[in-house]
Amino acid sequence: VADGSYRLEVSLSAIEDMAGNTGGESASTAWTIDRTPPAAPSAVRVLPDGGIASDDGLVSVPDLVLRGSLAEAGLVVTVQDELSGEYLGEIAQAGTAFELPLTFAGHGAQRLRIRATDTANNTSEARVFDLFIDRAPPVARLGSVLPSPRTDPADRIEVFFSEPVNPATFDRTDLVLRRDGGANLVSGVVR
């Protein structure tokens, strides 16, 4: 049987009962056959996304909103974490955009499997969205200046971070160099 809208009607105009009474009004019923799954959710992202890109899934908070688009209205969106198997929630959508609040107890990698289901219970392929929750701030360590005391200026002092940092957020304005507690000596010559 092909997908589509079906209607069965019984016309009672020529049908008689055993006493010879001709039928009255017609009777009908209608139904739809839909075996086609909806398209997978698209344009998936989380807010707030604190990573370098606005859609890279790098976040620093546990309370997020998952957003995305649907190819058709009237779908139910379900979300599960593939790594833990945890069911994260669902939302019924009248329109073609969805927003689902999510809260994560832990941190680290999450792999969200997002599916859409229509009213005929057809389920889309999964859209996978990788998320990484990093709630630990970076820590800096400075390389040693040796020997100390010394007779000539240090030509470089290395800065080591506990994790990769966004290079656009670290420049010379983040450095303070003082001699005997005086003014900041960092200038345009520091790279």
Description:
With 191 residues, the protein is an all-beta fold. The protein has strands at residues 4-10, 27-33, 42-47, 58-59, 63-69, 76-81, 87-92, 97-103, 108-117, 127-133, 140-142, 159-161. The strands form four sheets. Strands 4-10-9-6-7 form a five-stranded mixed sheet, with no helix packed on it. Strands 3-5-8 form a three-stranded antiparallel sheet, with no helix packed on it. A hairpin with a 5-residue loop joins strand 6 and strand 7 (87-92). The chain starts with a strand and ends in a 30-residue tail after the last strand. The model has no long low-confidence stretch (mean pLDDT 92).
Evaluate the radius of gyration: 32 Å
Spatial strand arrangement across the major sheet:
4-10-9-6-7
| Class per helix and strand makeup | mainly beta
Count every helix, treating DSSP H or I runs of 4 or more residues as helices: 0
Strand content: 35-45%
Tell me, briefly, the overall form: rod-shaped
Notable characteristics:
191 residues; mainly beta; 0% helix
How would you briefly describe this protein structure?
By secondary structure, the chain is mainly beta. The protein contains no helices and twelve strands.
List the helices and strands and how they pair.
Blueprint: E1 4-10, E2 27-33, E3 42-47, E4 58-59, E5 63-69, E6 76-81, E7 87-92, E8 97-103, E9 108-117, E10 127-133, E11 140-142, E12 159-161
Parallel strand pairs: 4-10
Antiparallel strand pairs: 1-2, 3-5, 5-8, 6-7, 6-9, 9-10, 11-12
